[in-house]
């Protein structure tokens, strides 16, 4: 795939043949490593098997960690400027091969090609932003000593990335770890392994052998990576339940851990808000993308005076969305990425209907095949319904009326998660006051889900520990060192 025109002309049959021609393999020590087995890769739009991906095993994980440990001895001493240049080469290669990589992302996630291209180019921008982070060096004035502070790399980083952002959430981990002087072993989700295998190959152009290793596999491979005594740092993005187990394992080895976990982001919509903007942002960032975004709006508290208008606006906007093949330029909707999650989302829909909720949009399967769930908003649910209190990760959004602002702020803040939130109001000062009272990592005002590559993504409560992003992420992949000279 050398151009977007070629990619948009792809049929499922052509796609399967092209994926076979890539002959993708794991990357360990800078070379191809065959899998101990193989797993089907399903195109979520049609439910067809379009590829067989090599799958590693715990022994593959051991080999990758050994390769990373060997490479660390040299990479840790590589000057900062040379590590920066390597990341720039990686970004160049991502941009050069963006169409090919985006085609793979679309094949394994069902995300429309234009969205996949945005993810790849966004990943390249992020890598360049990290590459611009300066070394951590500081001299501290002191009357009795000369104090120098700097940071040193930790060692081997084990990283596990999820299926909902197979490129961007992987390169975030790679870039921050490698600039700091660590080496890395990254495992993608078994539901979306192909894109990681491809950029593992791309990364060989930028990094010395063993610096960036890619292994695939299921929970047993992840368990080996996160429990290995040679791993100094774990970077995980996924569920809170799995994150807790990884955190316990890391503590046993005194390994550091950054855990980006679940979220149940609320939006608080005041009566003076720009309702058209709220509906449009929510549709594009959350509902059209199958809700598969950690910081998607997952529950919306709407002032009762404007609730009916918000429902009507959603109904009209959602009707204009189109579903179809992800390589069709007209397609708006992303299917749910895999069958287990698809069935879970339909379970949320069934439970909402059984509890007396009203679906605006069918919330059902609009096509004869594929993992599509029609985006919908739901009214009439109790405040403690599971669609409200759990992270649904699907295109179904509960709308909850409120009148008293203090009460709704307390309600929005009462759950276990603390990833993000948004406040919508024409009164910016009032909105910022509300934002500052919410116990979450990021609060947007009159927008949601807008990320800048150089801005961290903090986490609060059960949404995780640490920061993976930008200079904060580089610092968390480093050991602070103080040199105190008499």
UniProtKB/TrEMBL annotation:
Cross-referenced Gene3D superfamilies: Aldehyde Dehydrogenase, Chain A, domain 1, Aldehyde Dehydrogenase, Chain A, domain 2
Domain of life assignment: Bacteria
Gene Ontology MF: a single term: oxidoreductase activity, acting on the aldehyde or oxo group of donors, NAD or NADP as acceptor
Pfam families in alphabetical order: Aldedh
Catalytic-site annotation from UniProt: 260
InterPro entries assigned to the protein according to its UniProt record, in alphabetical order: Ald_DH/histidinol_DH, Ald_DH_C, Ald_DH_CS_GLU, Ald_DH_N, Aldehyde_DH_dom
Membrane-crossing residue ranges in chain numbering: none
Keywords carried by this UniProt record: Oxidoreductase
Residue span, Aldehyde dehydrogenase domain: 39-480
PANTHER family assigned: ALDEHYDE DEHYDROGENASE-RELATED
Family membership: Belongs to the aldehyde dehydrogenase family.
UniProt-recorded name of the protein: Aldehyde dehydrogenase family protein
Native source species: Microbacterium hatanonis
């Amino acid at each position: 795939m050398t151009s977007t025109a070629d990619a948009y002309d792809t049929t499922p049959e052509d796609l399967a043949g092209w994926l076979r021609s890539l002959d993708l393999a794991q990357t360990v020590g800078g070379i191809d490593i065959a899998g101990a087995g193989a797993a089907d890769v399903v195109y979520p739009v049609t439910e067809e098997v379009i590829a067989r991906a090599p799958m590693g095993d715990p022994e593959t994980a051991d080999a990758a960690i050994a390769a990373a440990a060997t490479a660390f001895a040299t990479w840790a001493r590589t000057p900062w400027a040379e590590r920066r240049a390597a990341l720039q080469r990686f970004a160049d290669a991502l941009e050069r091969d963006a169409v090919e990589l985006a085609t793979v992302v679309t094949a394994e996630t069902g995300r429309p090609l234009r969205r996949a291209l945005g993810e790849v180019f966004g990943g390249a921008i992020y890598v360049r932003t990290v590459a611009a982070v300066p070394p951590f060096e500081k001299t501290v004035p002191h009357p009795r000593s000369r104090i120098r502070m700097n940071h040193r790399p930790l060692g081997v980083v084990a990283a596990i990335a999820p299926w909902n952002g197979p490129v961007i959430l992987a390169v975030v981990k790679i870039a921050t770890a490698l600039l700091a002087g660590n080496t890395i072993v990254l495992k993608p989700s078994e539901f979306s392994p192909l894109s990681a295998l491809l950029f593992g190959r791309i990364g060989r152009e930028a990094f010395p052998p063993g610096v960036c290793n890619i292994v695939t596999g299921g929970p047993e491979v992840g368990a080996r990576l996160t429990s290995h005594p040679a791993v100094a740092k774990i970077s995980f993005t996924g569920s809170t339940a799995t994150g807790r187990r990884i955190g316990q394992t890391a503590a046993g080895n005194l390994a550091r851990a950054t855990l980006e976990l679940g979220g149940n982001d609320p939006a608080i919509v005041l009566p003076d808000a720009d309702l058209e903007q709220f509906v449009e942002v929510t549709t594009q960032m959350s509902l059209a993308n199958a809700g598969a975004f950690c910081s998607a709006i997952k529950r919306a508290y709407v002032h009762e005076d404007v609730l009916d208008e918000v429902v009507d606006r959603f109904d009209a906007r959602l009707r204009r969305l189109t579903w179809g093949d992800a390589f069709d330029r007209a397609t708006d909707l992303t299917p749910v990425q895999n069958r287990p999650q698809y069935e879970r989302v339909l379970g949320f829909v069934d439970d909402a209907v059984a509890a007396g909720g009203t679906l605006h949009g069918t919330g059902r399967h609009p096509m004869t095949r594929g993992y599509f769930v029609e985006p919908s908003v739901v009214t009439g649910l109790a405040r403690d319904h599971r669609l409200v209190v759990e992270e649904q990760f699907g295109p179904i959004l509960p709308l909850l009326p409120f009148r008293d602002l203090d009460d709704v702020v307390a309600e929005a803040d009462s759950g276990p998660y603390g990833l993000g939130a948004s406040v919508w109001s024409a009164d910016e000062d009032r909105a910022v006051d509300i934002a500052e009272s919410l116990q979450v990592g990021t609060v947007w005002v009159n927008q949601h889900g807008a990320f800048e590559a150089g801005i961290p993504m903090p986490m609060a409560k059960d949404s995780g520990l640490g920061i993976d992003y930008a200079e904060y992420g580089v610092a968390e992949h480093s050991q602070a060192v103080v040199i105190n000279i008499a």
